[in-house]
């Protein structure tokens, strides 16, 4: 399993930082968090492609291309519930947050499918 820390970016990161993080990860997602590890947004390889096609410079702030309202799961939610939400929205990843909105994990469609299969 990939370390969550390898996927984290600060809100001051640049578009190019997200490209590097996503390129070097198996998960193909970057998670933008504040200093308290509260989730601010996500950046996927699809967000990167759209940014490139829109002509966004790689020196632009990551906050301008991130999804600021990603679908999330809650700590303690059942695998079945998470998987159902992901399938309904055609998601490959779902960040998992605690009651205070802090990132505690990242579930993947592949990982959850193996858990139930």
Shape: globular
Strand content: 15-25%
The H/E string reads EHEEHEHEEH
Low-pLDDT residue spans: none
Structural class: alpha/beta
Q: Compute the gyration radius: what is it?
A: 14 Å
Q: How would you sum up the major sheet?
A: 3 strands, mixed
How many individual helices? 4
Distance between the termini: 18 Å
Mean pLDDT: 91
Tell me the helix content.
25-40%
Overall number of strands: 6
Question: How would you describe this structure in keywords?
Answer:
alpha/beta, about 30% helix, three-stranded mixed beta sheet, about 120 residues
Description:
The chain is α/β, with parallel strands linked by helices. It is 31% helix and 22% strand. The strands form 2 sheets. A 3-stranded mixed beta sheet has the order 1-2-3. Strands 4-5-6 form a 3-stranded mixed beta sheet. Helix 3 packs across helix 4. The longest helix has 10 residues, at 79-88. It is globular and about 40 Å long.
Describe this structure in a few short sentences.
The chain is an alpha/beta fold and 117 residues long.
Compile the SSE list and pairings.
Layout (H helix, E strand, L loop, with lengths): L7 E2 L5 H9 L5 E5 L5 E6 H9 L19 E2 L4 H10 L4 E5 L5 E6 H8 L1
Parallel strand pairs: 1-2, 4-5
Antiparallel strand pairs: 2-3, 5-6
């Amino acid at each position: 399993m990939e370390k969550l820390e390898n996927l984290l970016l600060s809100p001051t990161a640049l578009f190019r930082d997200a490209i590097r993080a996503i390129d070097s990860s198996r998960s193909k997602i970057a998670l933008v968090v504040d200093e308290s590890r509260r989730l601010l947004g996500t950046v996927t390889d699809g967000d990167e492609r759209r940014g490139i096609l829109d002509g966004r410079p790689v020196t632009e702030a990551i906050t301008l291309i991130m999804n600021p309202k990603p679908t999330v799961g809650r700590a303690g939610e059942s695998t079945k519930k998470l998987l159902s939400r992901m399938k309904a929205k055609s998601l490959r990843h779902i960040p998992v947050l605690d009651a205070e909105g802090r990132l505690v994990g990242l579930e993947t469609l592949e990982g959850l499918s193996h858990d139930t299969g």
